[in-house]
Design brief:
With 420 residues, the protein is of the alpha+beta class. The protein is built from 14 helices and 23 strands. The strands form 6 sheets. The chain has a 4-stranded mixed sheet. The protein has a 4-stranded mixed sheet with strand order 2-14-16-15, with helices on one face. The protein is globular, with a radius of gyration of 21 Å.
């Protein structure tokens, strides 16, 4: 387990290119087995979760080469349909392999997934709708044994626009008999990216980003190439880091429309944002206002993303007045609150996943512990403005979603080091 050491007081400035999205590459990797051929994927982030997914692919008898940001996967010999418990429990997103394996083999054996402990996050929506596609599911000691002679197209009405369920049902339906309609699906950019990837290998999927995704089953697929969309959460994290330090940064390789809800909140807080949509760039600078927010509420896309609430919580710790954040998606998203308070923040957890943040003049360096991915990022952000040195332990959580946060913040004039 490594740690980050941040010396506060350095304004961020400079330019940085944003790499591919964690929440895109993981379902895309699960989808690479479907063509039983070669997939060339570019703009791939080198994350710990990426390498766990590649371990799973190797176990399924795939091979790969990974040079710089180019990943070439050959799934022509894929034959295994059982994923070991130890690999599944390392990463919650591993459940996404369920849809692909059922689609390709009509059988999958997988345990309940691990990853960040952000609450129950049940997969009932996945399983209930897989059953409607003709999948029989047997649960034995937390092991799911899923079988289907053939996936039969059906109308699937999601009671909540779950990202994971939407992805799994898309992957499960690519070879379906007839047509599958997913009603009230998630609309996140990463799902759009997954569908672009699948269609590039010959799938017939329409309506992504709307209230109904339609998958018409095909009989075979072929080799493909795809570039992963840039990571809007990483971009948002660095924009917030610049804001808290009163800095000015320019981010390149950013999809402005996908980042809009984050930019809107920064504007509300008094920061100057300039977007260069044609050039895929965004610029932020401070106007020394640091306003508070009466209410910031997480919502499914295109609303404010839950994956950005921890980072904004750090920023609001040093804003003027009282702010409120309401988390509506994950019941344990606020595990960073006690750690931020160790740095001198004033945060109280109220009812219904509501955090009340009273801004303070200064934060003070201390030793804190990352307990999940985005909460860990919020501690680094707070450390950038805290006096003295802040040590953030349990770096493995942060490494799941940021290729090299030490490198990136150093490029932007942050004073941060990493040690084992």
């Amino acid at each position: 387990m490594g740690e980050f050491n941040i010396t506060g007081g350095h304004k961020l400035h400079g330019e940085l290119k944003i790499l591919g999205a964690k929440n895109s590459i993981l379902p895309i990797l699960a989808g690479t087995i479907l063509n039983k051929g070669e997939s060339i994927i570019s703009n791939v982030p080198r994350l710990s979760d990426t390498f766990i997914a590649l371990e799973i692919l190797e176990h399924l008898d795939c091979t790969y080469t990974f040079e710089k940001d180019i990943l070439i996967i050959n799934s022509s010999n894929v034959s295994n349909n059982v994923i070991p418990i130890d690999l599944v429990q390392k990463m919650r997103s591993s459940i996404i392999f369920l849809g692909s394996l059922i689609s390709l083999f009509g059988y999958c054996k997988i345990c309940y997934p691990g990853g960040c402990k952000l609450g129950k996050r049940p997969i009932d929506l996945h399983l209930d709708n897989l059953k409607k596609l003709g999948v029989t599911i047997l649960e034995v000691d937390d092991i799911l044994i899923c079988t289907a002679n053939k996936i039969i197209g059906a109308d699937l009405n999601l009671t909540f626009p779950s990202v994971g369920a939407t992805e799994n049902l898309i992957l499960a339906s690519v070879f379906c008999l007839g047509e599958t309609n997913i009603i009230n699906p998630a609309k996140e950019p990463e799902i759009i990216d997954l569908v672009h990837f699948l269609n590039s290998m010959g799938c017939n999927i329409q309506g992504v980003g709307t209230n109904c995704i339609t998958i018409k089953g095909v009989s075979s697929l072929y080799n493909c190439e795809h570039k992963v969309v840039s990571d809007r959460i990483v971009a948002g994290t660095y924009l917030v880091a610049a804001a808290i330090t009163d800095g000015s940064i320019l981010l390149d390789n950013v999809n402005i429309s996908y980042l809009q809800s984050t930019l809107d909140v920064l504007n509300q807080l008094g920061y100057y944002i300039r977007s260069y949509e044609k050039d895929n760039k965004v610029f932020i600078t401070t106007q020394n206002k640091k306003l508070s927010l009466p209410l910031l509420e997480t919502k499914p896309y295109p609303g404010f993303p839950t994956d950005m609430q921890s980072q904004f919580m750090a920023l609001l710790c040093v804003s003027n007045g009282v702010s409120t954040i309401k988390e509506t998606l994950f019941e344990s998203r606020n595990m960073n609150v006690s750690e931020l308070n160790k740095l001198g923040a004033n945060i109280i957890i109220g009812e219904n996943q509501t955090s009340i943040i009273t801004g303070v003049n200064n934060l003070v360096g201390n030793t804190v512990y990352a307990k999940d991915l985005r909460g860990g990022a919020s501690l680094i952000i707070a450390g950038l403005v805290a006096s003295g040195v802040t040590t953030v332990k349990n770096s493995e959580h942060i490494e799941r979603g940021y290729e090299d946060i030490t490198r990136d913040l150093t490029i932007l004039n942050g004073n941060i080091t990493y040690s084992n």
